[in-house]
Write a structure and sequence with these properties.
This protein is an alpha+beta fold and 342 residues long. It has four domains: 46 residues; 99 residues, Beta Complex (RNA Polymerase Alpha Subunit, Chain A, domain 2); 86 residues, RNA Polymerase Alpha Subunit, Chain A, domain 2 (Beta Complex); 90 residues, RNA Polymerase Alpha Subunit, Chain A, domain 2 (Beta Complex), CATH 2.170.120. The chain is built from seven helices and 23 strands. The N and C termini lie far apart (129 Å). 13% of the residues are buried.
Length: 342
């Protein structure tokens, strides 16, 4: 082999000797001494620079404590605050590398009031932050400048869930069903807000050109001071492909006197409609009615009847009748009265 173990060992040894010989040269020793003084100079420069004034920003966690069991926080509470401070660079470096800030604890009992809305004063936040800073550190600002939350003391009600947004099927498809789980949620809010909430609407959905069943999890539209339980729902959108079907439906007269009968030519007409493939076999002629009222027929004075169709099926659309009008005849019927009926 070209590179055997022995060859590799000899190559490494030769490189080691080259490096060792270079490090032992006069020029290398001079370079290392120069590099040492450069590092020392950089260290002194850094110390001198950091001794000047600087500004920087830190993030401090925010925590709410002692919330009673019957209280529900119905708005999002800020979980951190950003503070901007000024001090010598060495002090700020100590904050960044070695010192972590304790969370700012907000006691619910200290701010509880009748309005169910709490705003933490800016000065309170600054005092809590300043207590963790060195005496030489100046607190420049606290962001956000106002922090608050809304709570409810056990007031709630159950409301239905409704889907909002845009849901469109693909070509030759239609939305056959939308299933929401759960179909209702518990809403917690202060009394004045709670009475205005009648429905929990999902965040607007964007589902376009659907050609197959789609399932997704979504949250609800945010309303200040309102909390939903659960905070999300599962939406299942079913789509089906359209098919066209034709059935023959008889034309019937309604409201006719006992001695009169409606005759139409033809007696049955074709009803064509669109229906989903899943419901194709379940929809037939019995789901349609073509009725002609006697009093309307008398008022028309025409020798043709314009037909209209009614259906009890929610699964059909685009209904067409052929022919849309028929000739008719009102036929008088003779009947006999038996001796028992006299």
């Amino acid at each position: 082999m070209l590179f055997g173990k022995k060859n590799i060992k000899n190559i490494l040894k030769s490189y080691f000797n080259i490096i060792r010989n270079f490090l032992l040269t006069e020029k290398c020793r001079e370079f290392l001494i120069f590099l040492f003084f450069v590092v020392i100079s950089f260290g002194f420069w850094m110390l001198q620079t950091l001794d000047g004034g600087f500004e920087t920003e830190f993030t401090i966690p925010l925590r709410l404590k002692n919330v009673p069991k019957n209280v529900v926080i119905t708005s999002e509470l800020q979980d951190e605050v950003k503070v901007r401070v000024a001090d010598r660079g060495t002090v700020l470096l100590n904050y960044m590398l070695g010192r972590s800030f304790l969370p700012i604890s907000v006691d619910f009992v200290d701010y509880e009031n009748e309005s169910s809305r709490v705003i933490l004063p800016q000065e309170d936040l600054k005092k809590r932050v300043a207590s963790q800073l060195n005496s030489t550190t100046r607190l420049l600002s606290v962001y956000p400048d106002s922090i608050g939350f809304v709570y409810s003391t056990g007031k709630y009600k159950k409301v239905p869930v409704s889907v909002s947004g845009k849901i469109t099927p693909g070509v030759q498809y239609y939305v056959s069903d939308i299933n929401i789980t759960p179909d209702s949620v518990i809403v917690y809010a202060p009394s004045e807000i709670l009475k205005t909430v009648q429905t929990a609407y999902t965040v607007p959905l964007e589902c376009e050109d659907l050609t197959e069943k789609t399932s997704l999890r979504t949250s609800f539209k945010k309303i200040e001071g309102v909390k939903y339980e659960p905070s999300y729902c599962d939406v299942s959108i079913s789509v089906d492909m359209y098919s066209e079907k034709t059935v023959e439906v008889p034309v019937k007269g309604i409201g006719f006197p006992a001695n009169k009968t409606l005759r139409t030519f033809p007696s049955k007409v074709k009803v064509t409609f669109k229906v989903g493939l899943s419901d194709y076999s379940s929809v037939d002629a019995s789901d349609f009615q073509i009725n002609v009222k006697y009093d309307e027929l008398l008022r028309s004075g025409s020798d043709k009847i314009d037909l209209s169709v009614n259906t009890s099926s929610p699964h059909v659309s685009n209904i067409r009748i052929n022919p849309s009008s028929v000739d008719y005849l009102i036929e008088e019927t003779s009947f006999f009265v038996s001796d028992n009926e006299k």
